Fold this protein.
Amino acid sequence: MQSEVSPGAPLPLVTTWLPAILILAVIGCYFSFLNQHAINVPFADDIFDVVKVVSDVLTADDRDSAIRVLYAQHNDHRTIASRLVYLGSYGVLGELDFRVLTFLANLALPLLVLFFYLVLRGHTARYLIILPVALILFQLRAYGIMLWSMAAFAYFYVFLYGCYSLYFLHKVSPARFALAVLLAILATFTLASGQLIWLLGFVSLLYQAAVRKSASYGYLIGWSILAFLAWQLWRIGLATPNTPLAMVDRVLADPGYYLLYTLTLMGNTVTEQSVALAAGTGGVMLVTFLALLLRPTGENDLRLELCCGYVVLSIIAMTMGRAPYSTVEYALSSRYSFPSTLLLAGLWALLASKHLKRQTATCAVAILVGCLYSLDSYRHYAAPLQHHLEKRVDNFNRGRYWSWPRPIGETNAIVNEAISQGIYTPPDRPLSRPTVTP
């Protein structure tokens, strides 16, 4: 890692304590916001992937039936890892509490900040680099999922598990390999795109074995075998029109559309209104990533590069799953903005830690830009979040548990059955009006 201060020299206040305190303050403000606005009401996929799954597991006739419930696909995903957390939360609390689940889901964000710290902890400007990362991650661009527990678990944790899997594969040892495998399995069974972590892990181990000569090829062979088994297990009984051949045919039929969709998803962290701005930003981010990837630094630690690559490939996978059924404008949706946001944070950390010389001055500019970006998100996205929460509260106060495109009778029956069994206890009605904006 490059630095401006010699190793072992005392670090001044401006590069250590002050940015560290500000990082904690940014995280604290975000969780204070969650505490104020999270509600104990299931929303959309919460009904089918949380309430129904937990209810069916608890009422299953035997263990095999319960395992089949956990293993059942949700849309094109296997969400076993998240479902085990829902069950664990129920086991501790004695009921499902969606405020608690919201906080558990959002805990992935400080853990991602910790990941950046662990990768950069040998860097003398680490706190100055991580402060913009925190400002990028802890803001309201992803308002569509931050208070929606099922979606937050999916989109936050698939990257948390994947990044930490790559973290432990670096300087691999038997214990670190076992942890990396476990985390790769969790990513695979959190969201469909989590399967990509096996490919990035293969690249990491191949680099260590073939280039650095620091790891045995046995790790590479073991990882490949386990990847194949995980992929096969994921596909058992899977029913989906999105087969690999079908997706390739769609891309070949309209490659320009798929490229535009991908770039829009990649750059949508900066806008919810403009396809041109999002796609342009996505193009800049993609070119930046490729340039940083191809520029030699003499570093043997490729964890940041691999994690950015994981996000890029995940965005391409999202395009394959979403583009056939929506317009490009749909790629601007808040619910799909977190990968773009994480990629922006990762590119900044990669650029600042390995490719910049005047790091203190550059970090000062990045911190200022990050502050403006974060503050603007609280100003800009408060109104749409207010509207989103108002609809949720209004539906709840009217006795409606909503999940598009299912009929209200079906969704109400699922939640009311959980209420009658003591699995979920709703708050008193009427629930007060949200106060995100005055």
Notes: Confidence is low (pLDDT under 50) at residues 1-10. The chain is about 70% helix and 0% strand. The longest helix spans residues 359-380. Residues 55 and 259 are 42 Å apart (CA to CA).
